[in-house]
């Protein structure tokens, strides 16, 4: 618990944004209700004072339709249950809380918080089935995640790794952004984690139960941007889908839309986005106006004021987007986080890697990381798969850096003759083993050493 950094208020804020969360003890007494559950039980006829003072009350008196009691069995398996209450049809998961064989209580929370999510999920199942493209052992979880990525967790604030002052300040600003419910402009270099920050803001905001729609403005062909963002009516152009099609802003209603690389938005689309921000309505191609309640989070790795000055981005749109600015610090400004990030990445690699040597870590600290966390993770990933021992070493890292950086590091340090000899010996062993397909007898013969001596040198140099 010494590494636990969240305050009680932050914990409460996170729990309040888990849709339909109910926690009871082994006697069926309520220990916690999320904010939306308190509102639901009030609509069931429970008095406001009783709803606000739910602690210690029997769950059946607070919410008579709750099915969480079915999980009060230490041998019970997690169940998905459907419910219908106060005009809401949804699906929830319930399961017991068991520690050291003792039943402590049960948990209940939404996985599909309303009938719209259920319809989306069933439509995707039907579509996959019709295309004969549904593997029930693999795809159901994938489809479930796709539905929930609209309104629940993709990245959370806990996924922002780091203990530096820069990251602590970033997390504080993310909480401020989440509470404000206004447009946010995220500034950061490539690979710093702008998408992660946007998702974190959404997840702890009051829109957390709504959809989170992500758009990369640079990835959409210019002639399709308008229809993709704002949708179209039936017959509005050749090839238009029957019945029309909603745009991303409609799909994001009551939630958040994330416009990544917003600087790539074509000039003729920028006034339309400005209108959405000002009037809270979109114009489908074909003329239909539709009101939307959407929070916009935009991100860029460019200097938007410079683009405004050069006439490549509208000044009025810039000020509408830049109500709150969130800057993501580059990795070179938070180098004290490199070890934590490296150790985290190594744990995710599907190979038996025990760690990284001090020399290799020194190179990671000295490098400037123009590609930031994305580049760091890429280098660690490749180094791990190509290293021959159980630890990532200096040479493994150096081989993954750009050629000009290898020369730069090579000119900084004068190695001892012993170190140079050891390095040459290590490379010779690697080449011999590779040449003879791992046959140690042939490799030892080619190197002019005994087989046992080869084993000793392999162990010394961490060579498998």
TrEMBL record:
One of its GO terms (biological process) is regulation of DNA-templated transcription. Pfam families: AAA_lid_14, HTH_8, Sigma54_activat. PROSITE patterns: SIGMA54_INTERACT_2, SIGMA54_INTERACT_3, SIGMA54_INTERACT_4. Residues 160-385 form the Sigma-54 factor interaction domain. SUPFAM superfamilies: Homeodomain-like, P-loop containing nucleoside triphosphate hydrolases. InterPro entries: AAA+_ATPase (IPR003593), AAA_lid_NorR (IPR058031), Homeodomain-like_sf (IPR009057), HTH_Fis (IPR002197), P-loop_NTPase (IPR027417), Sigma_54_int (IPR002078), Sigma_54_int_dom_ATP-bd_2 (IPR025943), Sigma_54_int_dom_CS (IPR025944). This is Sigma 54-interacting transcriptional regulator. It comes from Hominibacterium faecale.
